[in-house]
């Protein structure tokens, strides 16, 4: 999807495979159960085999003609035709039925990720309500432009990425981040297309068009992931390209040489057909791709977007994780910490005055005060004569009295230095302080700090439990890094502070000498480090397009515990791929030896060969956390 046109995104349902499997099954039952003469038996066989195997007959000849390659489909086609020639209609039709079933199961596994995306596409409306010249008009989503103002009401799907321009609302972000609990969004908060407004009426200011939105980037990411092969897939693909022609040569020699020496033609032909079935590397060929597709689909459903199975496989090999601090381990924004009172005024009253003035400000500290005010459910006063002093603070008149709120410099120009010095010393160096005062008195000091995310502590603990070394790389000063590291349980020797981007890259190169390293950051200022590490993981990608483009894996929510979960996916996927490859190789070469030794007939060969494919797919389905019969049937109804 080079043009990112999500409006036309469709997922093809393999009806030809489904219908073929059903027709082949009905025909097979008829051949076994009905006492028919040769002519109607042949007719039933032809109907079942032609309709049941039509799709892979075509694929086999297209591959042979267009790519000059002998595919597994071609081997199975030869086995089907050869069995029919020998009059073994039941065995021939059994191949058609079982092979079409395994192809359908493989298609189901590969399509899981796209099903998730198709569900997301349904959340993107075709029209939206836009404000134009003070009037509400309905426009097509494709025509929405950056800076347009849209009206979102309860139950509406948000069509494109933007920020809350006016109002507050609870937003269901489960389709993007995998988080089941709605998130309260305030003014200036970011929202993503494809999410749902549960309550509240808001206006959003568009920051990205439909083609540039998070939804569109996710689709491109899925397309990219489907095309990228793991190292194991590449090895198996290379093997089968050389193996299939070898099998054709081998079966020709197995037929020609004995027949030339006087062997029975029909008996030798039956051996050759059985050998073709036994030697077709179907299970080996699907062992890795179905596992990768299942893992990608399951991870995507939880908001873990991976650019390809190779990265998920690498994640399973990681034995060390390096975290950026700001915005990754911490929230990355100053959050209200405490309030110190200096006048005869209550804490609630101080908050009401401060938040009433800060409502009109566009500053992170103002937003933090407003969030705390909202949490405390306090009222706001009407404000007159609002004034902003860039680099200092803001002021406004409440009940005919002027109040100011701002930094030390802003305070310094208005009241006594002795009070300022006292507050400066008490606040220390690790917190940001904003002062509320009137024309003559200091009223209160609001302290802010970049708080640790609760899930960061859990994630670091889980990583340690799994034997994964944890490092913190930050540009912050040593004192702050040490405090954060202690609270997270990171060893002091693993904390590196006051790093420039170049120094951070140098540290990553140093760590890579001893570890398979994943770097976790915000995807913007950590882009060089993400690119250099063995694996780049971006956090908070629901609002950061750069993260999707820079990192190998994007955790769409800000929950670091999902990183631990993605590592588990990687390790589990590696185990299942290894199991599938070992099992399929054992079956493949075991069947070939058994056929050459004459200890197994055609029917048993078909049963074991196709049965092994079903087992391979079933083992891969263990990567689908929500797989069950209902979800399987639901796939065919979509």
Largest beta-sheet details: 7 strands, mixed
- Quaternary structure state of the chains depicted: single chain
Report low-confidence residues grouped into runs of 5 or more: 1-11, 421-429
**Shape, per Cα inertia axes:** elongated
Distance between the first and last residues' Cα:
21 Å
* Share of residues in strands: 15-25%
Number of helices: 23
Rg calc: 32 Å
Task: Briefly note the structural class of the backbone.
Answer: alpha+beta
Number of strands: 22
Helix content: 40-55%
Main sheet: which strands, in order across? Answer: 10-22-21-20-11-18-19
Average pLDDT, rounded to a whole number, is 80
Give a nutshell description of this structure.
With 638 residues, the protein is an alpha+beta fold.
Reconstruct the topology from this structure:
Blueprint: H1 15-33, H2 38-66, H3 72-85, H4 89-121, E1 127-132, E2 135-140, E3 149-152, E4 162-166, E5 169-172, H5 174-177, E6 183-185, E7 190-191, E8 196-199, E9 202-206, H6 214-227, H7 231-260, H8 265-279, H9 282-301, E10 304-306, H10 309-315, E11 320-324, H11 325-329, E12 335-341, H12 347-358, H13 364-376, E13 384-389, E14 393-398, E15 401-406, H14 408-412, H15 417-427, E16 432-437, E17 442-449, H16 454-465, E18 469-473, H17 478-488, E19 495-496, H18 501-511, E20 517-521, H19 527-532, E21 535-539, H20 545-550, E22 553-555, H21 561-596, H22 602-620, H23 629-637
Parallel strand pairs: 11-18, 11-20, 18-19, 20-21, 21-22
Antiparallel strand pairs: 1-2, 1-3, 3-9, 4-7, 4-9, 5-6, 5-8, 10-22, 12-17, 13-14, 14-15, 15-16, 16-17
Helix pairs in contact: 1-2, 1-4, 2-3, 2-4, 3-4, 3-8, 4-6, 4-9, 4-22, 7-8, 7-9, 8-21, 8-22, 9-21, 9-22, 10-21, 12-13, 16-21, 21-22
């Amino acid at each position: 999807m080079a043009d990112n046109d999500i409006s036309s995104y469709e997922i093809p349902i393999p009806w030809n495979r489904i219908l073929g499997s059903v027709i082949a099954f009905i025909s097979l039952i008829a051949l076994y159960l009905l006492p028919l003469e040769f002519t109607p038996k042949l007719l039933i066989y032809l109907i079942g085999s032609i309709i049941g195997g039509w799709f892979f007959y075509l694929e086999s000849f297209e591959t042979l003609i267009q790519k000059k390659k002998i595919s597994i489909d071609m081997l199975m086609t030869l086995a089907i035709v050869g069995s029919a020639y020998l009059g073994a209609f039941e065995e021939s039709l059994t191949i058609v039925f079982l092979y079409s079933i395994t192809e359908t199961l493989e298609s189901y596994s590969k399509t899981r990720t796209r099903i998730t995306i198709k569900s997301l596409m349904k959340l993107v409306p075709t029209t939206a309500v836009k404000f134009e010249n003070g009037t509400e008009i309905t426009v097509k989503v494709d025509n929405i432009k950056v800076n347009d103002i849209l009206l979102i009401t309860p139950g509406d799907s948000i069509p494109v990425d933007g920020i809350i321009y006016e109002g507050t609302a609870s937003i269901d972000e489960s389709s993007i981040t995998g988080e089941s609990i709605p998130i309260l969004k305030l003014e200036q908060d970011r929202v993503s297309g494809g999410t749902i407004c549960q309550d509240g009426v808001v206006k959003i200011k568009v920051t990205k068009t439909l083609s540039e939105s998070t939804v569109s980037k996710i689709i491109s990411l899925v397309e990219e992931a489907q095309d990228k092969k793991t190292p194991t897939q590449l090895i198996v693909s290379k093997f089968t390209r050389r193996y299939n022609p070898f099998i054709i040569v081998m079966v020709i020699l197995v037929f020609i040489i004995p027949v030339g020496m006087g062997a029975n033609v029909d008996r030798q032909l039956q051996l050759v057909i059985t050998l073709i079935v036994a030697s077709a590397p179907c299970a080996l060929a699907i062992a890795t791709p179905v596992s990768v597709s299942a893992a990608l689909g399951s991870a995507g459903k939880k908001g873990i977007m991976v650019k390809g199975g190779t990265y998920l496989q690498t994640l399973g090999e990681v034995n060390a994780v390096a975290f950026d601090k700001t915005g990754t381990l911490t929230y990355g924004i100053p959050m209200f910490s405490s309030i110190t009172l200096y006048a005869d005024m209550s804490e609630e009253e101080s908050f009401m005055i401060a938040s009433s003035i800060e409502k009109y400000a566009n500053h992170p500290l103002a937003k933090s005060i407003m969030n705390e005010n909202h949490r405390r459910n306090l009222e706001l006063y009407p404000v007159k004569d609002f004034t902003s002093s860039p680099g200092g603070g803001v002021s406004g008149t409440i009940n005919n009295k002027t109040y100011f709120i701002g930094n030390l410099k802003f305070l310094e120009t208005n009241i006594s230095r002795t009070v300022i010095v006292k507050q400066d010393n008490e606040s220390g160096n690790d917190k940001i302080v904003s002062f509320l005062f009137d024309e003559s008195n200091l009223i209160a000091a609001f302290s802010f700090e970049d708080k640790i995310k609760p899930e960061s502590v859990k994630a670091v603990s889980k990583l340690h439990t799994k034997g994964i070394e944890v490092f913190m790389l930050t540009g912050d000063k040593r004192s702050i890094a040490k405090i954060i590291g202690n609270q997270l349980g990171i060893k002091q020797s693993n904390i590196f502070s006051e790093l420039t981007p170049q120094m951070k890259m140098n540290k990553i190169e140093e760590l890579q000498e001893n570890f398979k390293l994943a770097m976790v950051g915000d995807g913007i200022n950590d882009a060089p480090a993400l690119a250099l590490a063995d694996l780049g993981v971006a956090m908070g990608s629901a609002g950061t397009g750069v993260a999707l483009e820079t990192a190998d894996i994007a955790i769409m929510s800000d929950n670091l515990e999902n990183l631990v979960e993605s590592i588990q996916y990687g390790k589990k996927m590696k185990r299942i791929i290894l199991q599938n490859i070992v099992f399929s190789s054992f079956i493949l070469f075991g069947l070939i030896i058994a056929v050459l030794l004459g200890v197994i007939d055609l029917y048993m060969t078909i049963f074991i060969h196709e049965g092994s494919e079903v087992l391979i797919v079933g083992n891969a389905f263990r990567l689908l956390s929500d797989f069950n019969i209902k979800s399987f049937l639901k796939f065919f109804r979509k």
